[in-house]
Design a protein that fits this description.
- Helix content is 33%, strand content 24%.
- The protein has 12 helices and 17 strands.
- The chain has helices at 53-56, 69-85, 117-125, 137-147, 165-175, 189-194, 211-220, 253-265, 270-296, 308-317, 368-374, 376-380, and strands at 4-13, 32-39, 45-47, 91-94, 110-113, 130-131, 150-156, 176-187, 207-208, 223-231, 237-244, 300-304, 326-329, 345-348, 357-362, 384-387, 393-394.
- The strands form 3 sheets. Strands 6-5-4-7-8-11-10 form a 7-stranded mixed beta sheet. It has a 6-stranded mixed beta sheet with strand order 14-13-12-15-16-17, covered by helices on one side. Strands 1-2-3-9 form a 4-stranded antiparallel beta sheet, with helices on one face.
- Strand 10 and strand 11 (237-244) form a beta hairpin.
- Helix 4 (137-147) packs parallel to helix 5 (165-175).
- Bound molecules: ligand DWN.
- Residues 63, 67-68, 157, 204, 234, 305-309, 329-331, 334, 349, 364, 366-367, 370-371, 374 line the site of ligand DWN.
Length: 395
C-alpha cells in the first residue's frame, strides 16, 4: 500500500515570507507547487516540496513574535506556570525569535537558539544569551559541554519547520536533563481540519502535527506526552508537555481526551483528508465570489496583517494587487515591501484604518479578537472584514 498520499494541491506558490522590494516586483519569482501529503503509516501530514533551512531562515527573516499582544500574554502566562510547577534551573528555547518568551525569565537561567541572525540580535541586545545557529546534534553537544544539561526545553512554532525530525529529537535528548521537561507548541492538525485553515500549509510549515503523529515520533526517541493544553493561539494550537518514558510522571486525562477526539474525527483515515480537500476547494470558490462582490461595490479593499498564511490564500485564490489596494502591518521589516506572488504593497500601520476603506481582508485572522478590539472605530462606522475561516464571509 502506498504510504504517502497526496490529498491537496494549493497550486504554484512563492516562499511565504519572501517579501519583495520595489526593484523585484517586475522580476520572475521563484515558485513551487504546494502539495500536501498524509502518511498512512506514521499519520504525519507534511508538504511535498521542501526548501533548505538556510533558504527560509536567514538574516532577512521578517517575522517577530512580539508583534501581537495575544502572543506576549500567552508566553507570560506559560512562564508563570513553568516557574510555579516546574521551577527549572536551566531553560533552553529552540527558535527564540525576538525573545518574547525568554524575557519572562532571569537572563542567567536561559539560552535561546535562533538561526535568523537579524532576529537573534534583538534578543542579544537585551543581554540574553542567544546562539544564531540551527538546532542540530552538533549544536546540542556544544551546549551540553559548555552549559550542562537543561531542565526545561521549550519550542513554539519551530519544530514543525525542521525537516529532519529524528535529528531534532536526537539533539533534544542530548541536552535534556534526565528528569527534564520538553514543551512543544505547534498548530493543531485537528483544528486546522475543523476550521478549514488550509493556509497553515506553506513552505515553512513542513509538518502540521496531530497528537497521533507526534506521539509516534516521540516514542522512537523514548519520549512521551503527559499533558496537552488546547490553545486558541494561531487558530488552534496544542501545547504538549513531554517527558522521558522512564520518568514516572502521571499521564494526564488531557492526553486520552485528545487521542479520543482525533480518532473520532478520523485523523488517522485518508478519507478525512479528501473530505478536507473538497471543503478547501469550495472555500476558494466562495472567497473569490466574496471579493468579486466587494469589488462590485466600488469600495476600497485592503488587507490587515501580511501573514505567511495569507501568502497561501492569496496565491491559491489568485487575489492580487488588482483586488487588494494595500496591506497594513506593524512589522517594520515588511513595510514598504510587496506580498510574495501577489505584489500587494505593505504599508505601515499608523493606528487607524482610513475611512475610505470599505472592506478589510483579515490576513492575521488568528488575532481577530485583538484586532477587532483595536479597530472598534472602523467597525462602529460600518467597516467590514473579510475572513476565510471556518468558511469565507463578510463580518
Ligand atoms: O509559524 C510561524 C508563525 C508562528 O509565524 C512562522 N512560520 C511565520 C509566522 O507566520 P504568520 O506570518 O502567519 O504569523 P502571524 O503571527 O499570524 O502574523 C501576524 C502578522 O500580522 C504580523 O506580520 C504582524 C501583523 N499584525 C498587525 O499588523 N497588527 C498583527 C497584529 C496582532 C496586529 O494588530
Amino acid at each position: 500500500m502506498k504510504k504517502k498520499i497526496e490529498f491537496l494541491d494549493l497550486g504554484q506558490q512563492p516562499l511565504a515570507n519572501y517579501y519583495l522590494d520595489k526593484s523585484q516586483i517586475n522580476k520572475i519569482e521563484r515558485k513551487y507547487r504546494l502539495i500536501i501529503c498524509f502518511d498512512n503509516q506514521s499519520k504525519l501530514v507534511s508538504i511535498k516540496k521542501t526548501f533548505s533551512s538556510k533558504m527560509m531562515f536567514n538574516n532577512k527573516y521578517p517575522y517577530r513574535s512580539s508583534m501581537s499582544q495575544t502572543m506576549q500574554k500567552s508566553f507570560k502566562e506559560l512562564a508563570r506556570q513553568i516557574k510555579k510547577k516546574i521551577n527549572p534551573k536551566r531553560i533552553l528555547e529552540i527558535g527564540s525569535n525576538d525573545g518574547s518568551f525568554l524575557k519572562n525569565f532571569n537572563k542567567k537561567k536561559t539560552i535561546g537558539i535562533e538561526p535568523c541572525a537579524n532576529v537573534e540580535r534583538i534578543t542579544k541586545k537585551k543581554k540574553f544569551n542567544t546562539i544564531p545557529k540551527y538546532w542540530n546534534t552538533k549544536l546540542a553537544r556544544n551546549i551540553l559541554k559548555k552549559h550542562g544539561s537543561m531542565d526545561l526545553i521549550y519550542s513554539a512554532n519551530t519544530i514543525s519547520h525542521i525537516k529532519d525530525l529524528n535529528d531534532v529529537f536526537k539533539s533534544i535528548n542530548i541536552v535534556l536533563s534526565t528528569s527534564g521537561t520538553l514543551i512543544l507548541e505547534d498548530p493543531s492538525l485537528l483544528e486546522c481540519l475543523k476550521r478549514n485553515t488550509y493556509d497553515q500549509f506553506y513552505n515553512e510549515h513542513i509538518y502540521v502535527f496531530s497528537y497521533l503523529s507526534l506521539k509516534n515520533i516521540l516514542r522512537k526517541h523514548n519520549l512521551e506526552i503527559y499533558k496537552i493544553e488546547n490553545l486558541d493561539i494561531h487558530g488552534g494550537s496544542n501545547r504538549y508537555f513531554i517527558k522521558r518514558i522512564i520518568n514516572n510522571i502521571k499521564i494526564e486525562i488531557s492526553v486520552k481526551r485528545q487521542n479520543k477526539e482525533e480518532i473520532k474525527y478520523g485523523i488517522d483515515k485518508k478519507a478525512t483528508y479528501f473530505k478536507f480537500q473538497k471543503r478547501v476547494e469550495s472555500s476558494k470558490k466562495k472567497l473569490i465570489s466574496i471579493f468579486k462582490y466587494c469589488k462590485s461595490k466600488n469600495k476600497k479593499i485592503i488587507g490587515y496583517g501580511a501573514t505567511a498564511k495569507s501568502t497561501t490564500i492569496l496565491n491559491y485564490c489568485k487575489i492580487n494587487n488588482q483586488t487588494i489596494d494595500y496591506f497594513l502591518d506593524t512589522t517594520k521589516d515588511k513595510q514598504n515591501k510587496y506580498t510574495p506572488g501577489t505584489k500587494i504593497k505593505i504599508e505601515e500601520y499608523k493606528g487607524v484604518i482610513k475611512n475610505d476603506v470599505g472592506y478589510v481582508f483579515l490576513g492575521a485572522w488568528n488575532f481577530k479578537k485583538e484586532i477587532f478590539k483595536k479597530e472598534k472605530k472602523y467597525i462602529k462606522a460600518g467597516g467590514k472584514f473579510i475572513i476565510h475561516t471556518p468558511f469565507p464571509k463578510i463580518i
